[in-house]
Design goal:
The protein is 34% helix and 35% strand. The chain is α/β, with parallel strands linked by helices. Strand 5 and strand 6 form a beta hairpin. The protein is elongated and about 80 Å long. 19% of the residues are buried. Keywords: Membrane, Transmembrane, Transmembrane helix. It holds the Pfam family tRNA_anti-like.
Amino acid sequence: MNRKKCIWFIGIILLIICGAYLYNGVLYKEARNIAEEKPAFRLSSLQLLSNYKANMSVSDSSYLNKTLEISGKVTQISDSLLTLDSGISCSFAKNLAPDIHGKEITLKGRCIGFDELMEEVKLDQCILIQ
């Protein structure tokens, strides 16, 4: 009887340790800080868009979930969304000032893929560099 209690006790302790590991190490990782990451690629918005239109699967393997530094002309601003050269959709954490409309800018963000319906490359967690 005493041996059974010991096995149960060890089993419960192991379950608690495994649960704590999964909770802290796997489920709740810290969010990426794009501002501090070095970009994997530096390119113009037109280059990125043409790469995706030429071959989406190759572009996804190169750019998807990577930090990119993109330069281009602001063609549209709506609250926290910005469009570069009518083909790169960028989302920011805060609203943007409308005075950058029509200007050349550089930004950094995480590529989340190509929207075939809208024919846009999507970036999130964007920050303005210039």
